[in-house]
Amino acid sequence: MVDKVLAKSDSFYKIYERNTGANKESTHYCPGCGHGVLHKLIAEALDDFQLRERTVLASPVGCSVFAYYYFRTGNVQCAHGRAPAVATGIKRSLPHSIVISYQGDGDLAAIGGNEILQAANRGENITVFFVNNAIYGMTGGQMAPTTLVGQRTTTSPYGRNPGNEGFPIRMSELISQLEAPVYVERVALTDAKNTSKARRAVRKALQLQMENKGFSLVEVLSACPSGWKMTPVQAKEWINDYLIKQFPLGVYRDRSESVPAVESKRFVFQSADLWTKLDIPTQEPFASGGQPCAGPQDNPRIKLAGFGGQGVLVLGLMLAQAGMQSGLHVSWIPSYGPEMRGGTANCHVNLSHRRIGSPVVSRPTVLVAMNLPSLEKFETEVAAGGLIIYDSSLIDRPPQRKDVQVLAIPATEMADQLGNTRIANMVILGAYIALTGCLSKESITAALPEVVKRKNLVPLNQQALEKGMEFVVSSKH
Amino acid sequence: MAKQLIKGNDAVVKGAILAGCRFFFGYPITPASEIAEDAAYYLPLVGGVFLQAESEIASINMVYGAAGCGVRTMTASSSPGISLKMEGISYCAGAELPLVLVDVSRGGPGLGNIGPEQGDYNQIVKGGGHGNYKLIVLAPNSSQEMCDLTMLCFELADRYRTPVVLMADGFIGQMMEPVEFPPPVEHLPEKPWAIQGDALDENRIITSIQLEPELLEKHNQKLQEKYALIAEHEVRYEDYQVEDADFVIIGYGVVSRILQTVVDDLRSQGRRVGMVRPITLWPFPSVHLAEVAAKVKGFLVVELSNGQMVDDVRLAVECRIPVHFYNRMGGMVPSTEEIAEKVLTLLEGR
A359, B175: Cβ pair inside 8 Å? Predict the structure, then answer.
């Protein structure tokens, strides 16, 4: 009695419409090729677990590039070797789906070596089917990373020579060394016994993904009679006689019992409270109203420079933040990158009643120099009638320019007296606003908590600001 | 509306999330790293995914996978990283995937440096990847535009089912300016073509392969028709003091900000100089430039590259007026004074 009707799996298309050739009934695979068998094992598992409707197949470059002709699932065709990365993007955006990365040996073990290792190492909750036939079948039989030593291919015409191209890579062993993978097994499509083991492995790998247990990989030793120039029967014998010796069958990793099954969650797009979550202010902070300053100090173009760690960038930020809160147009550009670490730092700040054109300050109307190299480097750039403020505790010579206003302030000493060298920048800020009237003390006070992230330092910064202001006021008398 | 003083790179991420992007796949690189860092910080807070990929190649392919599933997704990098992504970009264009790619470009060739440069113009605008594709390319010149144009990138990507690039330079990425953020996009467009992990997926496919030459030609023609539509509708530029100008300077990104000051300075000396700033580098404002060319004596194109955009300007004006060129490279940025001097030299025929 026949109790089961042998029919094509429901997870295959009934007619292969996507195949542009004449034959829409059977696959393009050669007689004896393992792809057809593996396709069947996967499709039947999808049927049995009722996964077809939520399965997405990432297909590679190689003979199985046309897997999307056959699998009646979501299909995404990938660049050579990139299927695990593409599968990652799919799984992360459709966590409820079952994502299969179907790859050949060139795809997985050569050009996509990093993608597979890293996806495995992340424990992506995907299932990888790795067809290892020790050759590049689709492109006409070139050497693969899994080609056996001595094996002749079109690009190893004298046989694979380990001295030139290294040894065949055992990917299952390699991947099973990583911590994250849940299940790694190597099987072979040869006799009924091995094929039955392969069937179990395929089902297990898919089931683990259903349970969201993590990354699994099934390496399938598979015949390529055309590439190997053998009959299908010879090819299967060759797998048993040679391929399995290099690539022993078996379970290389299985920690499926110790990983708990979890429910998959669909991605849900939400846009509630976005401004709050993105730290976007919904209310104007205190604004004091920007007053135009008299003479050359209106719409200042400011360059600030010193050693890294002197707070030059923060000083610039304070000016920009207070300027913005005063209703001015502002811009701030830092020197950026590695030079910030240890070397010199500088930034360019514009405060203006008009829309700001160039944010780059090439002819500053104000130069703040917190060390000698900065003064030496930028002094000549200052516009005639401009202002140079320098830290006279660190710079022992005054500027040579005679056509600019100069303020020498022992900012570092004053900061030290307040108990923190690092607030010399605020001393200078106080001096600047007292001297030019460009920004109000209130606007700086309002900007302080926006810029100084450690709230307990705000009062000290405020003190330094006032010291700087007092210095200018008392010097005027 | 409250303003926030913010770096261009930070504004990109906030703009992207406001535009509905919830999936970021990237790899750190100066001067674009703040984008990955902010995405890593904010995306988990809004129910999204940030993943630091193992490489630029992997990250663009992750974006390919996510975009194929219909979500708003992006990646960001800087010049050498963009070069690595080129393979994936070609696949994304071929498979007609909507996604956003940010290039905060830096000095090259090779490892170059991290200074602001525009040497990526050709690789981005002319296509560094293989095949007959175009990318919509938007070039912001302020922190505000880093937000606004990022949001526009997502809109255009979905409208035309095509990758869109936000091409900034190191200065625009690192500069802080006040930004007014717009309200979030609450409803994303339906994408019936995208893989959704449901029963209808059997009729959906994301692919760029087409073995039959007749069919691949047809696919290419369809792409070209789409590009023609984009060229017709999406050209963007800004004119500054062009109306009565008899000489016009042209630049994009941070250069256009410098040129604006040059125009102001020269106008204060009684020179009738204007500026045109291409906002879309593709589609390029060729028609507009040709119209402007009919009214002025000459153009000066200023670039932080070796003469890449100037080719497009010359094609646009078809030799009707002289198109002069001035550039700096390697992370050097011209001062307003040196450009003004160049313009004066040209005006006086010195």
Answer: yes
Query: What is the interface pTM, i.e. ipTM, of the complex?
Result: 0.97
| Structure tokens that stand for A11 in this block | 């997870």
Give chain B's domains with CATH numbers.
4-233 (3.40.50.970), 238-347 (3.40.50.920)
| CA dist A415 → A227, A311, A422 (Å) | 78, 12, 7
Going along chain A from its start, the domains and CATH numbers come out as: 34-258 (3.40.50.970), 295-476 (3.40.920.10)
**Rounded (5°) CA angle B140-B146-B150:** 100
Residue A341 has pLDDT above 70, yes or no: no
CB atoms within 10 A of CB A372: 15
Q: Answer whether B77 touches A (CB < 8 Å).
A: no
Mutate to test the interface with B, among A333, A353, A439 (most CBs of B within 10 A): A333
Average pLDDT over residues A12-30: 92
DSSP structure class, residue B259: H
- Structural contact between residues B257 and B236, judged by C-beta atoms closer than 8 angstroms: no
What confidence score (pLDDT) does residue A217 get?
A: 98
Average pLDDT over residues B19-40: 97
| % of chain A surpassing 90 pLDDT | 87
Q: How many CA atoms lie within 13 A of B104 on its CB side?
A: 33
The pLDDT tens digits for A90-113 are: 999 999 999 999 999 999 999 999
Residue A101: both structure tokens together: 């990365």
Task: Provide, as residue numbers in chain A, all residues whose Cβ is less than 8 Å from the Cβ of B141.
Answer: none
Search chain A and give the residue with CA nearest B30: A337
Whether A324 sits inside 8 A of B3 (CB atoms) is yes
